[in-house]
Amino acid sequence: MQPDFTRLAAQPWIVYPVSMPRLLEQEFVAAGLAQPVKSLEISSTYAILAMLGRDDGVLALLPEGIARDPVARGEIARIDYRVLTQNPPFELLWRRDRALSPAASRFIDCYRACAV
Question: What pTM, to 2 d.p., does this model score?
Fold first, then answer.
């Protein structure tokens, strides 16, 4: 069962600033609606969870791994929904004229191993 996006669009939303605003907008556009007017970008997981715990009128788009424990403890509620749209592909860029740190080299190796 899909959530009622018309009702969800009227609620204030909290999203991570990296890719979540675009993902949220894509979901609403796919449902035939504009992006929610009331959205706040917060990069702190703790701040997002604290706001969710204090205000039952606010919604957040969170990765399942972050939401799992607070949901299990009854601190927040979960809307049973799987995101339907896909984030556009992204690329890793770095300067070829500079040496990468060992951590950056390892990250690139892991990215390449996992890339489809």
Answer: 0.61
